[in-house]
Fold:
Amino acid sequence: MGSNYGFVSTSFYRGLEWLWHFVYIQLLFLFSTLIGLGLFGFFPALYSTHSVMERFVKGDKQFSIFKVFVQSYKQHFFVANGYGFLFMLGVYLLTFNFNYLKVATGLEHTFLSVGWVIGVALFIVVSLYLFPTRILTEAKGKALIKNSIILALGAPVSFILLVASMGVLGFVLYMIPGFIPFLSITPFSFLLMGQLHVVVDRMIRKQAAWAEEKSGEEKANNSNVLPSYLKEKTS
Structure:
């Protein structure tokens, strides 16, 4: 019987390589956040982390992590901060409405509570998917919000598994807080970009199959094209 030590050794070193990549990107994230004076650096650094992870989930091994990260940070600094400002505004509005619910009564309280819960759910989905969706679909403005919701609701089981995986990750970080400075943002980003990549790829295949069935051809020419409902760009 042949020895499997070679396989174990290869898998072990490959795992160490991935671990180093994750720690390295996390350090880039922290350093870039500090360069941007904390809040103004956080959102561009997060966007850049997603950009690097998008290359990983696509299977691209021939690229410079540092170069991709820095280029994305510079190119999307103001855009990421713009969306970050909208995020903070959304947090403020939801907090304000929650405080108002404390003094509302009767039917008004019930109606506003339902609206608040729906608003919080949509806000979480859009906030979670905003940057990854922009990277994958290049949508902007209203189309970006629309695509974020479509990608979440279009694959509810996948979204639930993503949330569960993030919950497990959060629990691990809670139990071992020493990991937080080195392995917190990057695993989260990898899970998110990986899940979205699978969902978008599935949508592309469904569109190609539908186009093939409609045209009667054996192979559709748009097998690598985003579905039309994800391609709209709005400033």
In short: The chain has nine helices and no strands.
